[in-house]
Specification:
single chain, 6% strand, mainly alpha, 190 residues
């Protein structure tokens, strides 16, 4: 089949349908990200705060007498540990959601598995972080402040980046968050 020079091929109906589906997919993914980001990440805090506080209390109760009142865990009737909003790290969950939803060409079932795995991994690591800091606090360690700052500024970031890189490897992700969507849009506009 020879093409005549200068003639452009019309896009097929199937091609147009695929493009429309891709555009809707992009719009839906970014709409979810915008909605999830509203209200100061309240959705992440409301889900993960009770889970984090209760699991941390359970772990600490294995070694100390502990009780919970609101977001304060009291150890051995003397040492209150307040789990503030920043301890829950809602922004880290949001960043993991951003990585997952800004990456195109992932089937829904696989995407859900990725989000659940990312959230579960971070939840476990974050709870263990709070537990370790609680043990250091109760023991009166001179390393508490330094360890707390190290976790806050460096290790929490390493957790999030490490979880994303692990997911890229486990789920064989070839696309790049944001860039792949922008590249696709640019090619369609051009």
């Amino acid at each position: 089949m020879n093409k005549k020079p200068g003639k452009k091929r019309k896009p097929s109906a199937r091609s147009n349908k695929n493009q429309t589906k891709q555009i809707l997919n992009i719009m839906l993914r970014y709409f979810i990200l915008i909605i999830a980001g509203f209200s100061n990440l309240w959705i992440f805090y409301s889900i993960f705060a009770p889970l984090t506080i209760n699991l941390t209390n359970f772990l600490l109760s294995l070694f100390f007498d502990s009780s919970i009142v609101g977001n304060v865990i009291t150890l051995s009737n003397c040492c209150p540990i307040e789990i503030i909003d920043a301890c829950i790290a809602s922004s880290a969950y949001y960043l993991l959601l951003i990585f997952n939803l800004s990456t195109p060409n992932i089937l829904l079932k696989k995407r859900i598995k990725m989000i659940v795995l990312a959230f579960a991994a971070f939840f476990i690591l974050n709870t263990l972080r709070i537990f370790l800091l609680g043990v250091l606090f109760v023991s009166g360690s001179v390393f508490f402040d330094a360890t707390h700052k190290l976790f806050w500024y460096i290790i929490s970031t390493i957790f999030v980046v490490g979880i994303w890189f692990a997911e890229v490897k486990i789920f064989r992700i070839k696309e790049i968050p944001f860039y792949s969507d922008l590249n696709w849009i640019y090619k369609k506009i051009k």
